């Protein structure tokens, strides 16, 4: 069963990575994000989940902008700094790719966090 889950996760990552490469979006992992959060002060963390999802927990210091909001780009332009990289996550990784594409078109330096908040929770729970 564990091998099956690892295989599914690998397939998901490959397809997400391929889609991101088509849109020239850079990907990162939650492990890399953890290192960045500890060492780099000039990053912005963007949570693009719905308010209901965010109420279940967020990554510390994340800026929340619902990707489904009609004024997503307008809010992003007001809340985010184009001189700092933006690391984007959602629940599992699909919406963050879509949000990353939209932000890249606005001139942001964007990184999609593979696996989203689900992988972040798994990673941080194994590090305790």
Give the mean pLDDT: 87
Radius of gyration: 14 Å
Look at the helices and sheets and give the structural class. Answer: alpha/beta
Distance between the termini: 24 Å
- Strand order, largest beta sheet: 1-5-4-2-3
Counting structural domains, the number is 1
State the helix count. 6
Quaternary organization: single chain
Main sheet overview: 5 strands, parallel
CATH H level: which superfamily?
A: Rhodanese-like domain
Examine the secondary-structure arrangement and name the CATH architecture. 3-Layer(aba) Sandwich
> CATH fold name, please?
Oxidized Rhodanese, domain 1
Percent of residues in beta strands?
5-15%
Uncertain stretches of 5 or more adjacent residues: none
Strand/helix succession = HEHEHEHEHEH
The CATH class turns out to be: Alpha Beta
- Strand segment count: 5
Indicate the overall shape. globular
Percent of residues in helices: 40-55%
Domain Rhodanese: 39-125
Pfam families: Rhodanese
Organism: Tenacibaculum finnmarkense genomovar finnmarkense
Protein name: Rhodanese-like domain-containing protein
Structure description:
With 128 residues, the chain is an alpha/beta fold. The chain has one domain: 3-Layer(aba) Sandwich (Oxidized Rhodanese, domain 1), CATH 3.40.250.10. Helix content is 52%, strand content 13%. The chain has six helices and five strands. Strand 4, helix 5 and strand 5 form a beta-alpha-beta unit. The radius of gyration is 14 Å and the shape is globular. This is Rhodanese-like domain-containing protein.
